[in-house]
Amino acid sequence: MDSPAPLIREATADDAGALREIYGAGDVELFAHRVTDRATAPGTTHYVAEAEGRVTAAFALTALGRLRPDGKNRLILHEIKLRPNARGTGIAEHIFAWLATSLGVGTDRELLALASLGQRPSTFDKFGLSESHHVFRWPVLEGGEPR
Questions:
Q1: Average pLDDT value over all residues in the chain
Q2: Cα separation, 89 vs 68, whole angstroms
Q3: CA 13 to each of CA 32, 42, 43, 94: distance values in angstroms, whole numbers, following the listed order
């Protein structure tokens, strides 16, 4: 990991401007609402990684319970976004190390990490993630009419 460890914390409404910059689109007020309103995405917590006082990355974790009594609880890592100038600086590796040390990923919890089709982030390999599931998407249609 090339850079000093960033501070990783839950996102707050005060991060909305930085989130807008990272995503490159969207409304600041809507970002502020989405990170603070638990009803927007039940079970999901939004996080930011902050280096040198600046938000450099954002990601979301959704907790999944397990029905199987001996199954480890799962987290889904999704919505991971880095500022373009933060790519290649080790931020993603720091996020994965934080997941292991702070949230027990790999010991107490299982992690499912989403990646776009055709992409396999090098950090996945560094932390020993292997392909285990296929994800299928049911798209939301304009007008809300189901197929």
A1: 89
A2: 39
A3: 4, 17, 18, 23
- Nearest-CA neighbor of 19 among 78, 83, 62? 83
> What 3-state DSSP class applies to 111?
strand
pLDDT at position 3 is 64
C-beta of residue 85 within 8 angstroms of C-beta of residue 75: no
Q: pTM for the full model?
A: 0.87
> Are the CB atoms for 123 and 113 separated by under 8 Å?
no
Q: What is the pLDDT of residues 27-59, one digit of tens each?
A: 999 999 999 888 888 899 999 999 989 999 999
Assigned token pair, 78: 């999704």
Q: Which of 90, 98, 99 lies closest to 121, judged by CA?
A: 90
What three-state secondary structure class fits 64? Answer: strand
Predicted confidence at residue 65, as pLDDT, reads 80
CA dist 58 and 48 (Å) reads: 4
Collapsed DSSP state (helix, strand, coil) of residue 80: strand
124 sits in the region (left: phi over 0; alpha: psi -120 to 50; else beta) called alpha
